Amino acid sequence: MSINIENYKKIKSELEAKKVQLIAVSKLKPASDIEALYNIGQRDFGENYVQELVEKYEALKHLSINWHFIGHLQSNKVKFIAPFIQLIQSVDSLKLLQEINKQATKHNRIIDCLLQVYIAKEETKYGLDESEIQNIFNEVEKGNLKNISIKGFMAMASFVDDESIVREEFQQLVAINSNHKIQDSKLSFGMSQDYKLAIEEGSNIVRIGSLLFGARK
Ligand SMILES: *Cc1c(COP(=O)(O)O)cnc(C)c1O
User: Fold this and answer.
1) Assigned CATH class of 5-212
2) Pairing of strands 148-154, 186-188
């Protein structure tokens, strides 16, 4: 077992005091590590790859895990996770949202989603800009997306040491959120290296992997 129980307990108590939700990011880690963390109380897990998530879902069906999808999601793979996914945090196009709506309808579900916002200045990151976000809300208002529910926003900051850059990026997300009137909006930002900053800037969901499961290969 390679999970870091000490870090888990420390982070949990920090987050509980601030009412921030913890998503344990288990990508590339074995199902046995997930089960070990589950056994000390964790329920929400985040995965980045569809095939890996489906395999873990099948292997861990006996547990009541809330699965979050946090990676780049291809439209043609939505069908594999639609039956069970709790929250798709990484919606980065209207086309993807339409496919999630279609698959959710098939399964007679309403699937909760977060819109992934492009805040980092790194070309490699996915995410929506303000006009794309507005466009999505316009579509929702038309009543065309009845089987999805947009609960808030998600983002990844630049991977840099300069705190002021990261803070500024987080503030961009908070500003975008305040332009849209989502009730009790979920704001998912902050990872192992920047979750403390993120909470200071108003995050209410953090996604932490390596501090809990150790470094990834
Ligand atoms: C991998 C990943 C995380 C967790 O990263 P750590 O640095 O290991 O905490 C969080 N969010 C997303 C979208 C990820 O891909």
Assistant:
1) alpha beta
2) parallel
